[in-house]
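Sequence in, structure out.
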Amino acid sequence: MWNSFFGMYRCGQHVFPRSVYRGSLSGSIRFLSNAEIATALRPFYFVVHPDLFGRFPDQRAVNEESLKLLSAHLEALNKRRVLQSTPTILPFYLRSSQANNPGKMVRVPVERSADPKKVLKKILQSCDLSTEYLDKMPQAPERPERRRVNYTFTQQQQDDVFEDEFVIFQNINKAKDDKTLNGWIKNNIDMALQRKNNLLGLREEIKKLEEKVIERLNLKDLRYECGWNVEHYRACLRSLESLANLHPKDLSHLENRILVFAAFTGISLDGHVMLFTGDVQHNWMDFIRNIPKHDAYLKKIPAYEYALSQILRKIKIGRRKFMPKTQAGFYTNHLRKVTTTLLDYLGRQQYPTSWPEDLSEYEIVIESEAGPLMVSPTGQFIAPSTCPGWILVDFITNNLTEARDRSTLYKSNKHVEVDLHEKCVTSLRLASLTKDDSVTPDKMIKCLERLLPESQLNFTGCDVFITHYYSVLSDGTVCIPWDWKL
């Protein structure tokens, strides 16, 4: 059982690792480099990356665990092994275009084939993704004659490879076994620091490339808010630099702007130019050429917000503090819809007598058709643009006290969080401390208050990211849940 479980193969009286047994195939199979594997799976990562599921912690955790197992299997293939301990099917959630939809689950097959192309192709096909890159790869040259291989191995060879695969198997299951912060850090801190150190040269290269692009395009600032690794950021910078060389006149629309590589292409409500990191250069150029048209929507926003504020007794029109950015063009449509429904309401009746004459101490955020109707943790009224006037009025009426109390608590918590943040960075000797947008101040405060006395935790030199799960990102960032257990 143990032999079978860890990839051992029995033939007569000889027992040897399956990964070695299939070594004779290397003459007829083209193995792929890390770069080729990353490029081939780029469409897959664009739809399953855990950072795309910030609003759905359960789906994010599923994808996080499945990616760990898949990465270990691909790493084994790169070392000319087939890792038998990986499940034959891995569950993944695919990103949905709808903000409130966690996406559908697919069962991705993990081939036991020694041919990396076959493994990758099955993964892409299971998600209905293009395999064009793999199809265009040259085939390995065929050998004129197959050489008979002697499968006799020394006991030391068997033990070495068995131990190697056993270590990989243990690493895969550490996240499952370690339920405490202390145990998880002990098992993962060395890997985190090693990954960070391995990228020091790349980070320096990116910094120089950033400065070069900013100067070339005369940008106010250049940001990366996609969540992908730094290698992907470098690719984005090089693509932008290439466009600057090919279309310098068109890229003049970017002058004096803040450019952000993000999860969508458009103009944000802050006026930032957002470029989706998954788009091809052609799509970027189409958008950049039409930036003046998109700016027209941006200029309309203050008037639309003022109109809605006046109708709702001078209520503040806010932006949701812990949600992704919104495109200006869509936002103006949302504001117009809500304004129209409230005018229709006032055409038939008046606001409730319980309402104060002035609602300026309150704040409302208008979101897309699929948005929620709720009071946010920060005390804002959140309303979808399709909410009927009478429902919105009734909701505000019933939640005025709740909104005021939450807003007061949030304003107080903000200062407490900032103070705790500075103390934790110093006490734990962190390189940086950041958090996911969904981790509200009250959650962050609870997390930091518990972290502060734990000076024995070996976080020295780490970039720590507070979120809802444990993980070590490819750049060495250490992710821990806000509600960790010691």
